[in-house]
Amino acid sequence: MAEPEENEYRISRRIGIGCVTVIAGFFSGGMIGVFIGKVVGSFRGCNPGPELPACDWQVYAGIGMLIGVVTLPILVLNRLMRGTPADSKKE
Length: 91
Fold this sequence. Notes:
Layout: H1 4-44, H2 57-82, H3 85-90
């Protein structure tokens, strides 16, 4: 049975990794969303103007950020909780 200190370490480690991946997912999702907006805008024939990256870029960035904030931490924590093959051999 795992010691209470070891469980506390695992929980705090997951919280720390979750917080970092939320931030990374926010920014990476936003960048991917703007890229998708740029591709969609080029297919629509949209001219965004001299200072803007794409037409309606804020909509695509916002949706991308939301998706990134949710999916990246889930993927990372799922992989972390699965463990490594060496962990399964210890049991």
